[in-house]
Amino acid sequence: MADTVNTINRVIISGGGTGGHIHPALAIADEIKRRHPQCDVLFVGAQGRMEMEKVPAAGYAIKGLWITGLDRNWRSLRNWIFPFKLIHSLWNARRILSRFKPQLVVGVGGFASGPVLYQAVKMGIPSAIQEQNSFPGITNRLLAKKVCLICAGFPGMERWFPANRIVETGNPLRMQVLDAVSDQGRCFESAWKHFEFDGSRPVVFVMGGSLGAASMNAAVCRMVEKSSGALPFDLIWQTGTRYYDEMCKRMQAWPGPIKTGIRCFGFIDRMDLAYTCATLIASRAGAMSIAELALVGKPTILVPSPVVAEDHQTKNARSLSDRNGAILIPDSEVVGRLDIAISELLSDSDRAKSLQMNLLHAARPEAAKDVVSELEKLL
User: Fold this and answer.
1) What range defines the domain where residue 285 resides?
2) CATH of the domain at 249
């Protein structure tokens, strides 16, 4: 009887908008399917958002709602038509729930999760939130008292959510990411060969996300251009796709000996090899980036993006820097401080090891399994 109760046959996962919402949603879906191969998983996203492309590419069905967020400019046309979109999405969400008849509904944040979770609660369907950030979005804050379960990616969420509904699971990562990171095979030779390094010098990996970060690119340029010769380390530099051509032109003016140790990419497909190569990493502080970096366990410098909602990347970064698990540099200071922070870390092995050990303590490789175990308990 217990096996029957705990079997998940039909589930809806709602939300998206960014990779930070979509990737954990797919990780949860993958783990559900691994445990319950017969389960029918349906995603509900927002029309025109990236989940409408990424989710089908991962092999799952998705329905789209006509929903967007509010604009900070109250005069925006988007704000004036928002009530109509919300009413339409609430109606459509209820129709989807009535037709699909899920046992469970999971919201991962993003525009679409609000209407779906709200209607699921009204219909008495067991519902859960998976909150990736240390500072939750407004949708999840509004719905927290209505859902049955909140799976938190960071500690200390009692400030925002009812304590008796929170389970700290960490942020789910897809199995291929876990395999790539944990299996880094520790095959340094293969990683060095991939990036054409000889392994004789430390490697610094700077990444500003898939689109890139202008401030971090400027910090790299300053670091290189103020050096009197070649850098004392090899550099893997992910500029982001929108800055790649501009940075390549900038590099053309640099002397040959300086460019020898720099590998510049718009986007890196083999992140596992970049992580393996790296002696230390400088990165943005998105929740899913932090989840990966904790598993990698390399000394890390975090530079939160200043243009995200409610500055949640700074709060994510502080959750580690307050525990001496990473160095936090504000975006406004990164141009002047990144080279100093890198130099100090490379020359202070004790500090680097301390950061590394504290960061590893924050790793949650079992997050997807823990989330699904909690979902099974709801049944």
Assistant:
1) 177-361
2) 3.40.50.2000
